[in-house]
Design goal:
The protein is of the alpha/beta class. It is built from eight helices and nine strands. It has a five-stranded mixed β-sheet, sandwiched between helices. It has a four-stranded parallel β-sheet with strand order 6-5-7-8, with helices on both faces. Keywords: Lyase, Metal-binding.
């Protein structure tokens, strides 16, 4: 069984190394190698790695925080191009209650106070299903914090993060941006340049992200001893993943 973690990709070396570190943490927990592929900006691509082992069953975890073009179109296209015979694709990482807990931890680390205005900042999407996922996460975070969390975007979608920060700043309270990004890169830079009083770090290598990815591999049917490192957690918001078999 081959384990493959697929991320977006970035030109920022720190962002690339962060994905590598995350894969290493998952690999240590599963006690098996976890390969990394990227759908944009840099390689290797999923199709390249799948072609390298065409007859070995593979579990692929999309390291994306919502459904969207990369999950619904890019990854299936790479699988088709590879002509791989046996690939199981789990659902994306988000939305998931585990990520809300990570967001709260990042807010606390950054110095958030309950009376601050909070913006959940995502990369953005034009995909309706992915947009629904992002609004779901904002709703869950609002319920957890006990106050309304605004949703804004670093790239695609309205409002843009700088506009949302400017609007909330007039209320006389600190504005805190909760980064709903997996790694460093151009979009995280935009959050830090938004004018907010505080900006959290990306979700990154937080142990909760590692546990979630381990959980995805486990639920896909991979028999692992990872329970020794991370007890398996099950969440009710988990539709079945996609399977591509020939």
């Amino acid at each position: 069984m081959s384990l493959l973690l697929v991320a977006h990709g970035t030109r920022k070396p720190r962002g690339v190394s962060l994905i590598g570190d995350l894969a290493a943490q998952v690999s240590a927990a599963l006690q098996r190698p976890v390969r990394v592929a990227f759908v944009d900006v840099l390689g290797p691509t999923p199709s390249e790695l799948l072609r390298a082992e065409p007859h070995r069953p593979t579990v692929l975890v999309p390291a994306f925080l919502s459904r969207g073009y990369h999950v619904s179109r890019d990854i299936p296209s790479h699988i088709e191009d590879s002509r791989h015979h046996d690939v199981t694709v789990t659902r994306a990482l988000g939305p998931d209650p585990a990520l809300v807990r990570v967001l709260v931890d990042r807010l606390i680390e950054a110095g958030w106070h309950p009376d601050d205005s909070v913006i959940l900042a995502a990369a953005g999407t034009s995909d309706p299903a992915a947009m629904h996922d992002l609004h779901t996460t904002a709703t869950w975070l609002s319920a957890t914090l006990g106050s309304r969390v605004e949703l804004a975007f670093a790239a695609t979608g309205e409002p843009r993060i700088a506009d949302a920060v400017a609007r909330l700043s007039h209320r006389g309270r600190r504005v805190v941006v909760a980064s709903y990004l997996l790694s460093e890169g151009l979009f995280q830079d935009r959050l830090r340049d938004s004018g907010a009083d505080l900006v959290t770090d990306p979700l990154g290598t937080h142990p909760g992200v590692t546990r979630l990815i381990v959980n995805r591999f486990q639920r896909a049917g991979y028999d692992t001893r990872a329970e020794m490192a991370f007890p398996q957690r099950t969440f009710e918001y988990a539709p079945a993943g996609m399977q591509f078999r020939r």
